Amino acid sequence: METALHPGPNRYAFADPRPGPKREITVHAYRPAFFGPYSPIVLVMAGRKRNAAAYLDYWKADSEQRGYLVVAPEFTESQYPHPYEYGYGAMCGAKGGIRPREEWLFPVIEAIFRDARSRAGSMRERFVLFGHSAGAQLVHRLVTFGWSASIERAIAANSGSYAMPVRTEDVPFGLGGLPYSDADIHVLLSRPMFVHLGDQDNDPNDEHLPREPAAMRQGPHRFARGLRYMETASRVAARLGVPLAWRLVIAPGIAHSGQHMVPLAARELFDSTAHSTIFR
After folding, report:
1. Count of beta carbons in the 10 Å neighbourhood of residue 18
2. What is the pTM of this model?
3. Residue 84 structural domain
């Protein structure tokens, strides 16, 4: 029987439902004192260190203030090796080749939401998705290749590389290798995604920066790559004659810090006075 979520911090085990080797995810959750059956739910994907507990801490004060549930699953590197099993969504292996869809990581996020929703006694049908760094790589690829109607909005903050919305680059750095039509791209560009970038996240020598040839073609550092991602999406939208729903938010003075990007994300998600730069 599942354990109910009590007010304050919670921790529990969740079994990865995919076929193959048995893997267990430790889920960290924070339930604020005034969480109700229809209060929002935010799923948080940690960065390269897989430090989900730390990311939960970044969100706790705002969660308590605004009354939403925070759920941060911990995908340990021992079970989900970097980068293919986490940031690249288990879509392909290190030697190339696209894996069967039932092995992709994206549906696991939906399953974690459904389980947490039940533990919290929530009636909420949709959730907000946030990822920083490696977690942002996972989040924007989920938006691209594993979208669920349960997602209300998604934020990808300071991603190290991108699946560009073009067929001239192969998965996981583009759409190539999959039957992704112009109609599919149109749908992708209409999804509610925020791309958050720290304008000081511009170190070309960062030890964790993805350096595959396709990643390097995106730019010398994370800030440049994020700008190129949005510029590419804008050009593709113009070519197709469709509006671009994605929104770019630039955080001045912030480098590669999940802790400092979270307050910006919370304001964008829950503060009606927040302002974003909209690419058209």
Report:
1. 16
2. 0.95
3. 8-278
